[in-house]
Each structure stands twice: as structure tokens, then as C-alpha cells.
Amino acid sequence: MQAGPAIAAAAGVTVAGAGLLAWAVRGRSSRLFGDSVWRGSPALPQLALTFDDGPSESTPDLLAILDRYGVPATFFMCGRNVERCPSIARQVVAAGHEPGNHSHSHPRFDFKSPEFIFRELNAAQEIIQSTTGATPHWFRAPFGVRWFGLASAQQRLGLTGAMWTVIGRDWRWPGPKVADRLRADSSAGAVLCMHDGRVLQPNPHISATLEAVAQAIPLLQDRGFQFVTLSQMFPRS
Q: Which option is the CATH number for 31-233: 3.30.43.10, 3.20.170.30, 1.10.10.60, 3.20.20.370?
């Protein structure tokens, strides 16, 4: 007669544990797998615009839009894309934008070993630094998936994790719908996640990203928001 409640209790613990792990892996505010940020101060009218999966052959078109509106951004670069487009990676930094680490080959980290995770971060860190002359201080996990061993890798490389407040889904939605999402969901301190590449794909089609950015930026500026890099939003002491 005692087995039923015991089994139910064990099942409840298992479910709770699975829920905690899922939040730790993908939760925007989770810091269980390493120091991380996902939004800045709601008291300051700042937005941090970030781009993942670059650089790509289409990144210069994005840089032209950002330059038009005087907007700095943080670019989370994949090491292999830097190897393919070194001059564009240098162009990003030369334009005053901040480079971030987005791993070398854009794998999911769940169920990967700590050694694998460190190699991915370290390879990207080295190629970004040697190519652009700038050292990334921020890391964004591919697919937003963190795992055991990431905290150690970040600490060894001097990286802080960065998730997001608003993700544009610009790899899936048309530009106007993405722009509407950015306008509707942006609030003071928001970190906006967009993409100037499509994982490791050469010559990616990012017209939705370009259209959304060109539409959303002036409207958000008209609302009084100032665009900053992650290091400006989260200054290091």
C-alpha cells in the first residue's frame, strides 16, 4: 500500500528535475550553466541590437543600414564564417561594432562534453581575435542551448553569456512581421536578437533581416530609444 505514494513522489521529483534542467538549458534568465545576461536596466532607454550567425556575404548590406542610422551593434560570429569571410569580419569591427563569440561550427551543446564545448569556444575566440584584432567578451550559445562545462569554458576565455529579451525570428518570418515584433516587444533595457547569417550557409538570403532592421530602427529611435552595444549596456567594472 506504500508503493503507490512513493512512486508518485519519485515521478514528481523526476518531472521537477526535468523542468529545472530544461529551464537551465534554454531559459533566458538562467545562470546555472554560466554567468549570463538577457536584459539591461529598465530605467534606461537603451536597446542592444545583436546579430548571430555571421559574418556573411550579406553582412555589408546590414552594415550600410546601421551606418545610415548611426546604430552600433554586437555581432556574434561563428569561427567558420570568419574563416570564409575574413575581410567582412574586419569590416564589422572597423565600422565600430562589437564582435561576440557564437562558437566555431554552430553545434548544439546539449549532451556534449566540457572538452568539446571549450574547443568550440576557443577556436572561435582565436580566429575572431586573430582576424579582426578585437577580443570578444560576450558569448551566445547556438540555438540558445547551454550545457555542463560551459561555465568553465566561459571563465577560461573571459566570456560572459548573452541571451536575449526579444528574438526576431528573421530566419523564418517576412521582414514586416519581424519589424512589427521588434516594435511591439522592445522596452527599455531589451536585448534584441537578429541574424546576419543562416548558421554556416554561404551567401545566405537575409532580405527579411535587412527589411526589418531598416523599418524598425527609425521607429524605435523616434520613441526615444538609444541603441548601444552589449558592453555599453553592461559595462565591466
A: 3.20.20.370
